[in-house]
Amino acid sequence: MFRRPLSVDLPPLRLDSALVVVGRVAGARFAYSRNTVPVERIVSVHATRAPLSDVLDSLLSGMGVDVVLSSSGQIALVRHRASARADSTFVTGVVADSATGVPISGAIVALEPPTAGTRTGPDGRYRLRIVPGELQAVRARALGFRPQDQQLVGRGGEEQLDFRLPRRRWHSPRSS
After folding, report:
1. Full-model pTM
2. Which of 6, 67, 120, 145 could share a disulfide with 165, CB 3.0–4.6 Å?
């Protein structure tokens, strides 16, 4: 179930609403306590044919929540165990305007070719799960800006990758 590919493009919305949408797309049911999962937190995700596990990692990153598949096929979101997964690598960073340095809210940061991605928060920050030990191409894009590509090899843990996007130059047609 965790490896079955799915595609979702969620704009910023509450985590509980995001879980409902992802559950419908994946054909999954989630069980969690509102005391464990910060359901009011605003999240977003962009994923194209990504495994459910990657989509959930992007949605739940930094929340102290683990994902467990129960014997009944239900997906339980539980408080994070003390031992972190050694095979997880996350890339984090800020997407900003190259001219002003102002963070860009709602920019899309995705692996290339597109398999998983996320959107930046109001502070321009993002966090995305990548495969450790493999060369990864990461692209940041936002409306009104030219996209930027960078590459990295995840070494486990968290890697920093910031983007400075140049503004697009728009040319208006000349009137005669």
Report:
1. 0.52
2. 145
